[in-house]
């Protein structure tokens, strides 16, 4: 074989080798890309499943909290009104009978309100501000402590999932204040896409290890809707919680 033919053969073999190498590289990159896409899809599916599981748990907890509230209302409020209505209706005095009838009408309205609260559809028609007012009114009506609420309505428009999570987090924060802080007042205010819950109760040392996972769970739940949870407290100086959504 002449030198020229040998050179041509070498060039052809080299070109074929480089083409094969390039083809192998491209195929490997395509396979790797598809593997990464599949892995990303699996991660997204896991994240979505965890998100949906969190929302389902929150719905169940809200329903359980609602049932507890309904039970307390039936025992403490409706039961008392029924007893009073019975006494008035059994009276021989006309004005007492009239008072009894008015109490029956009040009881009917109270029961209708309770029946509506058993369905989570009320969340769609109730604004977050109105929900907070209801919760604080319930606390104050029991005589547990004084409450106050102010809002700039920056959280007036929320996605259903955002409202669902916020409702449950607010319920849990208020319950914690009632159970553990023994405050004389609870103040809630909404400002610049943040919700603040402040009590003047016992407070606690935040540097000490937490006895439970409550605060961690609240932080995770706020993170599921792109929000943040922060808490400041010290013994004897009450507790302030801040819930913030991205604006």
Automatic annotation (TrEMBL):
**InterPro entries linked:** HATPase_C_sf, HATPase_dom, His_kinase_dom, Sensor_HK_TwoCompSys, Sig_transdc_His_kin-like_C, Sig_transdc_His_kin_sub3_dim/P
Q: Where do the TM regions start and end?
A: 6-32
Any single Gene Ontology cellular-component annotation:
cytoplasm
Q: What is its EC number?
A: 2.7.13.3
Pfam families on file: HATPase_c, HisKA_3
Record's subcellular location: Cell membrane; Cytoplasm
Q: Which cofactor does it need?
A: [4Fe-4S] cluster
What's its catalytic activity? ATP + protein L-histidine = ADP + protein N-phospho-L-histidine
Topology within the bilayer: Multi-pass membrane protein
Which residues are in the Histidine kinase domain?
Answer: 69-247
**Kind of enzyme, top EC level?**
transferase
Which molecular function term from Gene Ontology is one that the record holds? 4 iron, 4 sulfur cluster binding
For this UniProt record, the keywords arranged alphabetically read as follows: 4Fe-4S, Cell membrane, Cytoplasm, Iron, Iron-sulfur, Kinase, Membrane, Metal-binding, Transferase, Transmembrane, Transmembrane helix, Two-component regulatory system
What does this protein's UniProt record list under function?
Member of the two-component regulatory system NreB/NreC involved in the control of dissimilatory nitrate/nitrite reduction in response to oxygen. NreB functions as a direct oxygen sensor histidine kinase which is autophosphorylated, in the absence of oxygen, probably at the conserved histidine residue, and transfers its phosphate group probably to a conserved aspartate residue of NreC. NreB/NreC activates the expression of the nitrate (narGHJI) and nitrite (nir) reductase operons, as well as the putative nitrate transporter gene narT.
Protein name (record): Oxygen sensor histidine kinase NreB
Species for this entry: Algoriphagus sanaruensis
